[in-house]
Amino acid sequence: xxxxxxxxxxxxxxxxxxxxxxxxxxxxxxxxxxxxxxxxxxxxxxxxxxxxxxxxxxxxxxxxxxxxxxxxxxxxxxxxxxxxxxxxxxxxxxxxxxxxxxxxxxxxxxxxxxxxxxxxxxxxxxxxxxxxxxxxxxxxxxxxxxxxxxxxxxxxxxxxxxxxxxxxxxxxxxxxxxxxxxxxxxxxxxxxxxxxxxxxxxxxxxxxxxxxxxxxxxxxxxxxxxxxxxxxxxxxxxxxxxxxxxxxxxxxxxxxxxxxxxxxxxxxxxxxxxxxxxxxxxxxxxxxxxxxxxxxxxxxxxxxxxxxxxxxxxxxxxxxxxx
Length: 323
Hints:
With 323 residues, the protein is mainly alpha-helical. Helix content is 75%, strand content 0%. Helix 9 crosses helix 11 (190-213) and helix 13 packs parallel to helix 16 (303-313).
């Protein structure tokens, strides 16, 4: 295997390029952040994407996924050489069809080199996030089945280890770079978890037809779609409160969060208003995404506009919560 060689400018160029290949949404939102935050948040997303790739590999057994997840975590924590993860991972995924995600795994050394150029405090926050996510996903690898998770508590735990912890990470990074936000978020840290969980619940509900087709469900048994939508709506309410704690002068941070929040709200509203379960019907058009992107430039620093948008765009969801 030809390991990518060290070149700081080339490393950052690769990170930006591959981000656009593995996630159009985050390639749109992450550059809204100030440059120092953009680097570490983009880097973290790619690390999380590697963890997700292992989870999404349908051909791997739960034990294989657990082994690869542990190797990846050990590489991130510098307990083993990075090639000790990359080589067995590529071998295990020899039949994996997503070439962009395979390329990302090949470039794990590049991604980790970028991480090690970040501040020590940011590195520590990222390591904590990846540790919780990797260990958490390993725990849930053995719970993958077509029936679903056993109850609501297990569902919320899953949403925490795959996304709530990312909300905590973002909060740590924001605090490292914004003393004013550090003051505002004090005693409201739980809102950060809700922000991440709201996005993950949206993904689970949006992707449930595709998951069902491959014999997997991440929804809790004995909890209806309507109940899950109501819970997701409550998480969105907390998410809006979280965003409004970000100082208005931190426009990039606000716009980054508001864009992800708004897209989730519109997606959940589509799910709430559709009787037919079809992933394509839940997907927002590029025109809609770009129109909302333009709107965030104006609304992200205006609490009233954000609130009005939330109320207007989530009408079908609010009807469910009142029924």
